[in-house]
Amino acid sequence: MPFLHTNTAPPDFVGRMFHAGGDACCEPGNGKLSLPPAVAAVARRARLADVDHYLHCSIIGTCLTTAELRKLVPRHVPALDRQASSDLDIHHAAVELATSGHAVAKDINKALDTRHALVIKRFKAADGEAALGVLWREALAHGDVPGAYWALMTHPARTLALRDQAFGDVHMLSHLVGASNRADLRRLSALEQECARLKEQNASQQARLQELGAQKHQALELAGRGDAELGELRARLAALTASAAVEDLAQARAALAAQEQLLSVQTARGMALEVQLKASEQGADGLRGDIGQLQTEQAFARSEVDALEQMLAQALQQSGGAAPLPQLRDRCVVYVGGRPQTTVVLARWMAAAGGELLVHDGGIEDRKGMLASMVSRAQMVVFPVDCISHNAMHVAKKLAAGVGIACHPLRTASVASFVELMRRLALEETRPALREDAKFGTIPVF
Predict the structure, then answer these.
(1) 308 or 223, which is more confident?
(2) What fold does the segment set 332-439 form as a domain?
């Protein structure tokens, strides 16, 4: 489950990172729990097996692409289909195998070292925590996070404080792409569709250019054969003139004129094809420029979405007003996973709206046995897919199905995702009543 980058990160890395956000193995509280300082600072570069297991999810998701994992993981897990398995299944298997000490950890370590060899070499020159921190901040500012993250986490001079800082930076980057502006997303989708259309149009133009090139080549070959035949006819004309065969001479002259006319036609056609080829090449150049502009606009749109999400998060943290939730009428909701600072706000808002929010962290500190008793009291179970462990997510779904209540996944662990779900469910419950009132003429239905 890869991590997402923002700002100057390349689009493919953004797409990888958006899948993951953060698992329970990537929780900020879990990044500081294992190694004492004497073990964290080793005399050599650390291997993946030396790194805290709770960091494996963020390292594998951030520093390797899904395509690389698809080539690597199915070799060790025959049950995983290289083509049909989802990105989540591939990432999940890689993290579990690496954490359990499976032989695949060595292959993943080798793939990480090979992919980021240049960055590792640059970080090798850092001779202390301060120099290492400067290199990390520079990489973060330039969006060169995957290689720098792996190089820092395995550097001999790393400290727990620097490791936690890097983990927190990467973790928070994954949340900046949470709740996004719908209008910007529609615009982004339209730009992607337009980009695909232009690519198809460009492919058609390239095919047409190849066809025109083949026609030009054919015309040149035909003109070459005409030149050869013309030379032959001229030789025959000279022979006929010498033998005084007037009739043959006239026929030869007529044939020569016909060949010269054909040559003129073919030459003119070849010139016309050259003009068409040049015009097509100019059109292809224009299309390439349009594609570049669309890609630039797409990057700006994503950056704007990130800025809106950050501003929304700050506003929600500073707001002290009433909850933006519909009246819940004593409804009880179980929230599995998420971030403590977010669930505290949601619990207060649920209470203000007349409901109750029961929070379970997915088994990090809360006992898993408590989750079953919470679900038995609730009318609904929700969990953020970007901030819950794989095991806790499956357990929550199974318990909800066992008691026959709805289980809704949230796109992110943000406040906005939870508020949007509650409003959407309230609207779905209201629609049947509105239709019934409209049936008896009480209110109009639009």
Answers:
(1) 223
(2) UDP-N-acetylmuramoyl-L-alanine:D-glutamate ligase (3.40.1190)
